[in-house]
Amino acid sequence: MSKYEPLREHLARRDDVVWAAKLNEVEEIIGSTLPKSAREHRTWWANSGGSLVHQNAWLDAGWRVERTDLMRDVIVFRRLRIGGTVAGTASRVERTARSPQKVAEKRLAKEMLSLRQPATVTLRSEWTTLGDVQRTPCSNAAIPQEGGVLRFASLNDDEVVTVIVATLAVQKAYRSLRMEMKGLENDTDSPVGRDLCQKTGIDPKAPIECDVVKSGNAWLLTDGRGRKANLDDQSECYLVAQLLYLQEVQSGRKATLLLR
After folding, report:
1. Which residues, 6+ apart, have CB-to-CB distance to 160 below 8 Å?
2. Do residues 248 and 157 share a domain?
3. Residues 157, 108 within the same domain
4. What is the pLDDT of residue 114?
5. Which pLDDT value is given to residue 101?
6. Quick one: 26 and 52 in the same domain?
7. 83 to each of 79, 91, 93, 96, how far by Cα in Å?
């Protein structure tokens, strides 16, 4: 008999749909310690089956691993079948007909176990250097017209201060600052230049360095799964800017966040 047979039996006896198990709980159930790879590699908890007896334990019981959080020693199992049927089909319809309100309450409470698991959101980004704002013209090919995140940096009493700007029109935002610094009338509809000079610690007469995170240079990762951020979408552009702002603050710099 496989040492993981107790795990199969345990899962087969459970009545719930989701089980967020600590690794030490799994070890108590099987009566022995898990291999080192189970604590270090997410692939150990895949749902491949075949000759992998430990995976067959939960697959044969009608469950699958939905999510792994090895940083917190948590594995989330989800039921696939109840009594030989897909969970949530015939058996659930029958129960709902008897007491729809109670079934809904019970199901929601169980689903919340999974929803309340800790989540980690990580940002990977690459800055493109634009250089000194006074010397870099608005026509510079590195300045995108679409959405992105700008970072302006200057010295204030020998201290570096930064401003993170989220905008759906990078070139307009950059041009509005150039116009403000030169004392010219702003011919764009962007308030970035005015706000940056009036609401932050940056002196428009001092040298100001600028960097930009362009579309395609930012990735959002949630629990190990990632995708490129859409900086033309206002909510995602703002999220990226907020994460970059937090990075500035955690680095000890005086920073300001502008969402435009």
Report:
1. 153, 154, 253, 254
2. yes
3. no
4. 67
5. 81
6. yes
7. 11, 8, 14, 17
Q: What's the rounded mean pLDDT across residues 200-212?
A: 90
Residue 118, SS3? coil
> Pairing mode, if any, of strands 209-213 and 148-156?
antiparallel
Tokens of 174: 């950059």
Q: Coil, strand or helix: which one is 46?
A: coil
How many domains is the chain built from?
A: 2
Instruction: Give me the half-sphere count of Cα atoms (radius 13 Å) on the Cβ side of residue 112.
Output: 6
61-102, pLDDT tens digit by residue? 999 999 999 999 999 999 986 543 344 444 444 444 457 887
Question: What's the domain range around 11?
Answer: 5-115
Residue 46 pLDDT > 80: yes
Domain co-membership, 133 together with 252: yes
The answer on 142 and 106 residing in a single domain is no
Q: What is the mean pLDDT of the chain?
A: 87
Q: What is the chain's length?
A: 260
Is residue 94 domain-shared with residue 141, that is, in the same domain? no
Q: Which helix (H) or strand (E) holds 67?
A: strand 63-69
Domain end call among 71, 90, 115? 115
Domain boundary among 68, 91, 115: 115
pLDDT band at residue 112 under the 50/70/90 scheme: confident
And the tokens for 177? 């600052």
Give residue 86's pLDDT.
40
